[in-house]
Amino acid sequence: MKVVQKSVYVLEKFIDGVVIGLEGWYAAVPEEGYKGHPFIIKHYERGFGPDGEPNYVFFEANVKDWNKAVAFRKQPQTLPGRSGFYTLGYFKMGDKL
């Protein structure tokens, strides 16, 4: 039995669903390195409790297939030395924060 090592995509910030015409909060994952492989989306949201102490909320989503995203968008390359477009897949992470 072969064990599949899942990649981990650490999300910097959530994307508001208004951007893609949907409600809720989404993770935008590029196709390069994640398409065709199972992976895990992780995000840490820092907040403060009622007593003023900092606390962290942990979000995690297991994704079996990048092609099962709820929406896709092509973006122009902005990195130096690269041209063309790349595709982002959007995965729902929650209804509200």
Q: Ends: how far apart? A: 39 Å
Residue-averaged pLDDT: 87
Number of strands: 7
Shape: globular
Overview of the structural elements:
With 97 residues, the protein is mainly β. The protein has strands spanning 7-10, 15-16, 25-30, 39-48, 54-63, 71-76, 85-94. The strands form two sheets. A four-stranded antiparallel beta sheet has the order 2-3-7-6, with no helix packed on it. Strands 1-4-5 form a three-stranded mixed beta sheet, with no helix packed on it. β2 and β3 (25-30) form a beta hairpin. The model has no long low-confidence stretch (mean pLDDT 87).
Q: Short summary of the structure?
A:
The chain has 97 residues and is an all-beta fold.
Key traits:
mainly beta, 97 residues, 7 strands, four-stranded antiparallel sheet, 0% helix, 49% strand, three-stranded mixed sheet, globular
How do the strands and helices of this protein lay out in sequence?
Elements: E1 7-10, E2 15-16, E3 25-30, E4 39-48, E5 54-63, E6 71-76, E7 85-94
